[in-house]
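quick one, 143 residues, struct below
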Amino acid sequence: MNPDTLQYRVAAVQSATPVQLVCMLYDTLVRDLTRALDAIDSKNIETRAEEVKHALLVLDQLEAWLDFNNGGEAATSLSRFYAVARSRIVEGHAKVDPALFQEQIRLFLEVRSAWEQAEAARKASESSAAPKMQSSSSLSCSA
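---
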């Protein structure tokens, strides 16, 4: 990775919201599994193994971020989702089965979309709940 790309990524991560960070990790999972699919096509076992290993590390990070104390059923459901995804990725790697990787990519994109929708709804509710400022022409200062 060239230094400019690295600087850009570091800046993006440092300025990201928690949901944006989660979405970045989902993007990384999709890239890893897409490269693993490419490696299957080119019969490159070493690259496939590297991409699968990285995808599993990303899943570990996503799972480590789960807040079971405050996340309730959502955290539990995501934990189960990550466990099944991990199992299917390992199975896809062992069986050299592109369909298993493709299915996980599809699922990760669906869950990523749900995160984006939840963040948009949160922002919309925050902006509608924010107090409205009066225009300066309607403000009066009396002594």
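DSSP finds five helices and no strands in the chain.
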